[in-house]
Amino acid sequence: MAGSSKTYSGKEVAVHNSRESCWIIVHGKVYDVTDFLDDHPGGSRIILKYAGKDATAEYDPIHPPDAITTNLKPEKHLGSVDLTTVEKVEVKITDEERARQERIAARPPLSEILNLHDFEAIAKYTMAEKAWAYYSSAADDEITNRENHAAFHRIWFRPRILKDVTKVDWSTTILGQKSSMPVYITATALGKLGHPDGELNLTRAAAKHDIIQMIPTLASCSFDEIMDAAAPGQVQFFQLYVNKDREITKRIVQHAEKRGIKGLFITVDAPQLGRREKDMRQKFEAEDPSEVSKADQGGVDRSQGAARAISSFIDPGLNWSDMAWFRSITNMPLILKGVQCWEDALEAYDIGLSGVVLSNHGGRQLDFARSGLEVLVEVTTKLKEKRGLSFPNEKFQLFIDGGVRRATDVLKAVALGATAVGIGRPFLYAYSAYGPEGIDQALQILHDEFEMNMRLLGACSMKEVIPEMVDASNIHLHIVSVPSDNLYESNYERLQGVRLREIKNKL
């Protein structure tokens, strides 16, 4: 970083506490953000709140570690600060926070958490409102978000009986790497919103339970911090948002390969962010109305909440011709994350990629995109017809994510041809609600569910979980009567429309 080597005192920084001259401290470094106020996707109010002060505690959970150094010009990196001279920011406990702490104290013991739905139920009431809004939000009317889960209800089992299921084995291999179950931890951004250790909770739990973590581009922890926390020999994948600056992308990819990443998952469903309105409403409520008015005059879109604040670098120009370039800069297996139709899966196969994730970004991008499970049925059918492929297939692997809450969901996907299934939000909810013990319990619950359901299904290994064990004839019917999932529906928080601002009684 090209900045000054000068060390400031807390008093020197503190005088720059206005819109006309705004300095902040992050991780012991001083930055002049005056010219950035009107460009900050999160609005100016939150920056001005920490003008002349240490903003690290507010910055950390909602920014990747290098966000400030990437977005500010080098001359705005002013130097270091003597932290012993910096006045501590007084943290005022609001009534809302006090109530949240009371709800945390009222959590049931972890032994009473019986399934992944339960973690979500507790997280909903114990997470900070901003964090819950970011994790749970989805695009537009959140139809796809709910369909991702509902799709599994249209698949029914056809169990086999009188099989010796004394021993059942639900381990598998993913891109040639061993995994204790056909599940991987898929990439999700901003892990520190839910817990101070962020993604490191997932890294440690993945090592303990011998599954694979996909490290996100937009993690709260740095890539190297996550890699350094891994156990010896631990397998990890990397999810890549492609930067408009290809040199930056090349550096990230080659560094990941050098550090031992075993698979590169290139996100292809986010040329522009979807509208996550729960997250957006948090943004509006946090902003000063007068500042919003000023910002509107400048034509800067700050409507996207936390999501917009961290993703402006993503290249909307990414296209098929770029895949040859990726193959020229790395030997890692290349997987497209976010494929939503058989034609694109076929194209990925034909150009020699290692697989695709059939995914709609957890329902956070295009509303009314179909579920990964439904697309899986389409892809396996068409690729068999067009190229004679059967699945699961070692040379071209299919993955899905979105809506998974039970081991039975995973078994349905495997029966229909998936190599493995990605789980994201439930693991975030697990550690947000109960810390590292929560994610440990979540994975143990899945292990227990796999053991029981494979016995009941009549399958001793993943190779015996075959298409004939499921009835998928209703998967393409989007209006079909199935029993309600009360646990899922009780956790789902209905979208709220715009409301009048609170009117204070003048009397």
UniProtKB/TrEMBL annotation:
Domain Cytochrome b5 heme-binding residue range list: 5-82
Residue span, FMN hydroxy acid dehydrogenase domain: 108-475
Location of region: Disordered: 280-302
Cofactor(s) named in the record: FMN; heme b
Compartments in which it is found: Mitochondrion intermembrane space
Assigned keywords, A-Z: Flavoprotein, FMN, Heme, Iron, Metal-binding, Mitochondrion, Oxidoreductase
SUPFAM superfamilies recorded: Cytochrome b5-like heme/steroid binding domain, FMN-linked oxidoreductases
GO biological process entries: lactate metabolic process
Pfam families: Cyt-b5, FMN_dh
Biased composition (Basic and acidic residues): 280-294
Official protein name in the record: L-lactate dehydrogenase (cytochrome)
